[in-house]
Design brief:
Layout (H helix, E strand, L loop, with lengths): L9 H4 L2 H21 L5 H10 L4 H11 L2 H13 L12 H37 L4 E6 L2 E7 H26 L1 E2 L13 H10 L3 E2 L10 H27 L7 E2 L19 H22 L10 H29 L2 E2 L1 H8 L8 H10 L4 H18 L3 H7 L1 H4 L4 H7 L3 H4 L2 H8 L2
Parallel strand pairs: 3-4
Antiparallel strand pairs: 1-2, 5-6
């Protein structure tokens, strides 16, 4: 089999050179299978394998006339092969070549994305363990809630990327099917053994049944998986953008020497990579919708899906691979500011420990609603006027009936919130 044009870059998978190489692999493999069945001369296959080639400029020129890409390709190949070319494409239809080749491209793209997902996950693991015991404020609705650890936030991201790896593996399996079944998929002019042979050579599985095309629910699953991965990266990016805000500044994207943040304001250091991730995720999500729109086609086939896939195939795979590469570098070089995290933890005067005061009261027999109101009236005073929450609680006569000063202080111990972080990490990083 002719070796495909390969480069480490995702873009190479979608190059015209690589696409036509896969097409030629398919056509030659089909000829080999037909020769094994004694349906075409082995000598013709030998000639085809020896002389087969194509010229991209020539294909483009022919296509302008015939308005058909596969016919243009076969014509160019025939100009290299000569008379033996009459044995090529026997019993096949264009979709046999197009859909099988697309499966190879999407599978190879999945391999690159899986590799980058694993690299990204490794960086998340490293950073999660580094900041496992770094206290930071957890937020709900954007408002200070209770303490967590920055490492735990990253461990959560690590686990989500793991789920995306499994999704990508499943999508890769679903898309890795080929077909050589002829017009309307009934093998009227070609034997199923040819399909089996071609797919084996390409490391694909034959589609159990096709309708002249591979069914587009497979592609919808693939591109939806890419959208979920992009959504994950968008989620991480939004968090980083919030944490980099000036009034928060708990983390910051790495700012290289000579980098400039604003054409007007020399002081600016903006979360530009994170913002780019959020923007690109919108494109990938939109492409997933287009893939789902491709599922309902007329009868056994039409080509309304084809124009869509010529755009979303390269775009989504290249974008997601790029996004993963950028986010891997971003997290690896992320600037983390524990001192600012500590400052933010202390910003509300201890209000973030209110639940533990509530629980301490209920353990002493106070009805929960009554305990809630006792704690809340003190909390709201600190919220509205500022001050020292534990100090205020120690002055509350109703609370003094149930809790000693020492018991109140115990409710404000950071270790209450981080005591099970090790157990969580053991579950995540088995």
């Amino acid at each position: 089999m002719i070796e495909r044009y390969t480069l480490p870059e995702m873009a190479a998978i979608w190059s015209p050179e690589n696409k036509f190489r896969i097409w030629l692999d398919i056509e030659i493999a089909a000829c080999e299978a037909l020769a094994k069945r004694k349906e075409i001369p082995q000598s013709a296959v030998n000639t085809i394998k020896q002389k087969a080639g194509f010229n991209i400029k020539r294909i483009d020129a022919i296509e302008k006339e015939v308005k058909h890409d596969v016919i243009a390709f076969l014509t160019s190949v025939a100009e290299h092969v000569g008379d033996a070319a009459r044995y090529m494409h026997l019993g096949m239809t264009s979709s046999d070549v197009l859909d099988t080749a697309l499966a190879v491209q999407l599978r190879d793209a999945a391999d690159l994305m899986l590799d980058q997902l694993k690299k990204f996950r490794a960086v998340l693991k490293k950073q999660a363990k580094r900041y496992k015991n770094t206290p930071t404020i957890g937020r709900s609705h954007g408002i200070h809630a209770e303490p967590t650890s920055f490492g735990l936030k990253l461990a959560n991201w690590y686990e989500e990327v793991g789920r995306n790896i499994e999704r990508m593996k499943h999508a890769r399996k679903s898309i890795s099917v080929g077909q050589i079944s002829g017009a309307v998929g009934v093998f009227a002019s070609i034997d199923p053994s040819v399909e089996a042979y071609v797919c084996k050579k390409l490391k694909l599985k034959p589609a159990p049944v096709s309708s002249q095309i591979i069914q587009r629910d497979r592609h919808a699953e693939y591109f939806t998986t890419l959208a979920i991965i992009a959504g994950t990266l968008d989620k991480f990016a939004v968090e980083i953008r919030h944490l980099q805000r000036t009034e928060v500044l708990e983390v910051e994207e790495f700012f290289s020497k000579g980098q400039k943040g604003s054409s007007a304001m020399p002081h600016k250091r903006n979360p530009v990579v994170s913002e780019q991730m959020s923007g690109l995720a919108r494109v990938v999500r939109g492409n997933a919708l287009a893939a789902m729109e491709n599922m309902p086609l007329w009868h056994e086939r039409d080509i309304s899906h084809s124009s869509v896939e010529r755009v979303i195939g390269p775009d989504s795979t290249i974008l997601v691979h790029y996004m993963l590469t950028q986010m891997t570098r971003l997290v690896d070089q992320l600037l983390v500011y524990p001192k600012n995290m500590k400052k933010n933890l202390e910003q509300t005067g201890g209000l973030i420990f209110s639940e533990h005061v509530l629980l301490a009261l209920t353990r002493k027999g106070v009805v929960r609603d009554k305990a809630y109101r006792m704690v809340q009236r003190n909390a709201m005073q600190v919220w509205e006027k500022g001050g020292d929450f534990p100090g205020l609680l120690k002055q509350d006569k109703d609370i003094q009936k149930h809790l000693t000063d020492k018991e109140i202080d115990q409710a404000f111990d950071m270790n209450n919130h981080l005591k099970n972080v090790d157990k969580i990490f053991n579950r995540v990083f088995k």
